[in-house]
Amino acid sequence: MKARYQYRFYPTDQQRLSLAQLFGCVRVVWNDALALCKSADKLPNYNQLSALLTSTKKTEARVWLNEVSSVPLQQSLRHLATAYKNFFDSHKGKRKGGKIGAP
User: Fold this and answer.
1) Which of 18, 26, 33, 52 has its CA 20 to 30 Å from the CA of residue 46?
2) What are all long-range contacts of 41-47, with beta carbons under 8 Å and residues at least 24 apart?
3) What are the contacts of 48-55 at 24+ separation with CB within 8 A?
4) Which residues of 60-99 are buried (b: 16+ CB within 10 A; e: fewer)?
């Protein structure tokens, strides 16, 4: 028999602000990487996207990305790479189920 636990998180006001800032940064990184993937001739891999993130964080326009941890930002790039892999695998028939849409 497997046990199931349910937890509830009650963040303080400071934690809410920190989480909102983090989620906003992750959203911006995802959208920037997705726009790059859609405009590129060849789909960039995770290493290229990660290098681009590093260079983007050094620009004046995106210097605020340094205020949050880089781990969730890199994880969003991994999720994007996985989403594209699943998309291409579903269209090639390597993935069970129906065809899925592009990210």
Assistant:
1) 18
2) 43/84, 45/81, 46/77, 46/78, 46/81
3) 49/77, 49/80, 49/81, 50/74, 50/77, 53/29, 53/77
4) eebeebeebeeeebbebbeebbebbeebeebeeeeeeeee
Of 74, 103, 73, 77, nearest in space to 88 by CA: 103
CA–CA distances in Å: residue 15 to residues 11, 21, 62, 71: 5, 10, 22, 18
Element containing residue 50 per DSSP (H, E):
helix 46-57
Is 49:80 a contact under the CB 8 Å cutoff?
yes
The one-letter amino acid at 69:
S
pLDDT 10s digits, 43-90:
888 999 999 999 999 999 999 999 999 999 999 999 999 988 888 788
